[in-house]
Amino acid sequence: MVLCVALLALSLPTSGYADEPNPAPTTPTGPEQRMENVIAAARHYLGVPYRLGAEGPDLMDCSGLIYRAFMDAGEGRRMSGARLGVRSYVRWFAARGGLVLDEADALRGDLAIWGAGQHMGIYLGDGRVISAVTSGVTVHALHGIGLPLSGFLRPDWSGQGRVEPLDPSLLLDETETPVALVPASAWAPALDPSIDGAQPVRAGEERVDMRSATSRTFDNGDGTFTTELHAQPIYYQSSDPGDSGPTDWLPIDLRFTSLEAKGDQPAGAAVSASPVVINAFPSDTSDGFLTLAAGERKVSIGRVGDLSDQPAAPVIGVDGRTVDYFDFFGDGASLRTSARPDGMRSFVVMRDEPERSHFSFRLAGDDLAATMETDGSITLRDAAGGVVGRICRPQLIDSSDVAGDGGGIFTAATSLSVATAADGALVVTIGVERRYLDEAVYPAFVDFSITDFPAASPGADVAVISSGHPNSVLTGAERPEEPFYGESWLGRQPGTRNDNELYLRFDDPRTVIGAADVQGAVLELYPYWGNDSGATFALHGVTADWTTATLSWLRRPPAEMDLGSVTLEPGEWARIELAETPAYGVVLAAAQPGPDTWTRLIARDQSDEFDFGPRLVVTWSGLRPALGPAPESAALAPVAAWTSAPVAGEQRRFEVQVSADDFATTVAGSGIVRGETGSVTTWIVPADRLTYGDYAARVRTKADETGWSEWSDVFAFRYGPVPIAPTWWARARVHGDV
Length: 738
What we know:
By secondary structure, this protein is mainly beta. The chain folds into four domains: about 30-170, endopeptidase fold (from Nostoc punctiforme) (Alpha-Beta Complex); about 200-230 and about 475-620, no CATH class; about 235-240 and about 250-455, no CATH class; about 625-720, Immunoglobulin-like (Sandwich), CATH 2.60.40.
């Protein structure tokens, strides 16, 4: 996902890392400091080998790590002061009311318990824990071992405490169970081969000439059409003057292909079947190892420092979905890039905790300028001030999400800054707070992505906001391990109290179908993961403008239009009939927020494996023109002007009628206009046929390959000294005695 983030102060709340504005750095004090001292003592033993029954410092088991960390920090009184087994610790804490069963209530510094007392570790917050497993002391996911989570023990960090005499009845002789880490589950949806049969099949034949960047239209053969409007671009216009011509809409393909050396251009890789063309070259290329171009807009990205120092070549992934620069920074940190329809997504890949915590890149373009926005992102502009693209505030993603519950994303871990080099190039630097790197589950990733190229997505959008990341927006979860794939989240994340809402926006159907008669509109969604019984969500129409640059949990636009509700069941298409299509899109949220609502939707369509992204399906008939604003004219008479739907074909004939009695009779008309004049879209109403008063006008058109359109919607106007106010869809311009 492209996700905007914030920087956290040095002081962390006991509930874990939070997404919040940048407070002044503070030092933990009192209870919080005691808790942090124990965690720091435990981190000191990272990498120490495992041995059952050992308590350090060179070997230790899980309860031995707990005992040693508390004793090293001088806090032994808070966990009995004795070296006990896991189950004895459980009974000691339970006898003092220190047992927490709900994962959503867990706090940083609690002791996590698995298997009803077979294993224990120190909870770090955000689904991560430090414990001694068979591979040694490590930070791992809360659900990343082969035992079920049982609950948490809560130390009393508040007072000085005292060591109470141990009650022998609390002690148990059972030994703990050595446990191993389990591999992270696949982040991409587990779609079996038969899933292809679940894709919606349109009855009609696609009209290739009716494509747009985000839509495709099917002729049903009975005078009706079906148009799919997608929330992301699915087609692009080729810029190559080949047989297809530069105006044809072609399917987007975001896979990298090899790029041969030519002249001064080195060999590399490229994505060219996309609104944003990406070229990848060796990292020591002087003009930049990555270039992004969309029309006249272009950005090149280069390394900072000695270009000859360990150059890395772009390596295309097995499936073509990524380009990797292994050991890009010369210290084990690599770079992975994948293409998006509106730019690129890149990740710094850290297999282990890196020595560095800052990563810099050079950006150049035609007088490229950068503006730091209030939300911490960077807007890139060209010499004319036009927006080229946007760099969202980075995010840190680690490997603590093994269950697909939306974890492992840290929106407060990073900062973004920009400076100007001596040669005028921009230097963008991502900083990652060391504390997050100390407690990350590796491999971990930091994103550096340039998106929102204006030419890529005219008006469609898909975004998720989360109460767990209140200052951020998620635009399609894309993990570096599973590129070329995106999902959206709905409902409450398991083990938390974080709720998620989905915002969808589609291009205005009128830009595709003009003034046609709409017979029905259906919102289609594909949930691939969720509760077997499904979860119910409320759908509302958004009533104010929004973009991914302005959207967050704390900046939600009003959504006052009730559009009903829907139950989303995993593996089944959800179809929601809409009585109207709001101009600013829709928002989907849990009807009753709470447990058992967590649902994951497929959010993107650019794949050779599946096509399941959200879409608005409109059924319509009648390709009719729409009367609109007339151009300036020297004629002393009203001017009728109209526009035809882009899908209607090139106009060859037209007819305009003007009436004063609801078209029982006509007072003026163009008749059928053919030939060269038949392609124009204005007609001057003869003034000598009109007297002061109220009139109505309508128009119909004909293209070579189609029959006559339906008559346009009627447009009322007044000819005389008092003009009427313009309506939403059309406007009369009257010249003369006005």
